[in-house]
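Troubleshooting: if your tokenizer reports a length mismatch, compare your output against this known-good record of 267 residues.
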Amino acid sequence: MKTLIIIISNLCLVLTGCTTNSTINADLIKKDWVSEIDKYDNIYRLYVEDSLMFETLTPALDPVVPYKISFDTLIIFTKDYNPYPRIESKIFKYKIGRLDSLELILIQVFPPSRDTVFFKREELIKKNDIRISQLEFFSGMCLGRCPIQSIRIDADSTLYHFGYRNTKHLGLSQYKLNSPEFLRLQNRLNSIDRDSFKLCVAAPDASNFKLFIKSHNDSIETDGMFCANFTNFNKLIVYLEFLERLLPLDSLDDKEMGFRYKPHYDN
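Known-good structure output:
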């Protein structure tokens, strides 16, 4: 059956009489998607928001990239994976073979490829009742390009960010999360088992994180590195790590703000 879908989808690329232009609803893609295992044993993820997405589908230097849907084609604007001798923009185009509330099928058409990727919607099932009254997050240096930053989200949903290195926003910035944006974060938090809020002892050259969450009833605090790949808690950490690239922060260069966590050299 899957082979038949691939054949039909590829025929749609060349037959003008076969088009899905009138059936594509761009709003349906604004979800979390996880792919099936492909022939190379890869699993891809897309966290799609209004005009930006976190994606692992392309060999992008930065996993947070802009995108658009033009008729029945998903266009992803990335940066070349190899930063030497210079970083170049690269465009990837995928024919949308199917898009509904549960399933997404992408056929790569540029750069030319025969690859077809099957995605399923990744449901965020509620597993706890924690309500954010304050959240603080820190991501530290590693042997690589890990963003070094401090984040604070207050009870009024105002986000404060200080970027030290390898972040889109350097220095102090702020942003007022609107209701849908705050709900996305809250839903990710609520999809985690209460006993899964933990990080493991960090290796010297690995990404290290610190997280503090205060709710109305209690608080959670943990630090370290990922214990296992892509548990719901690890996905929350990844989302927080790249949140400042998904939001239009405003600079606050003339102000100061206290953060629970900062780099050791800045203490």
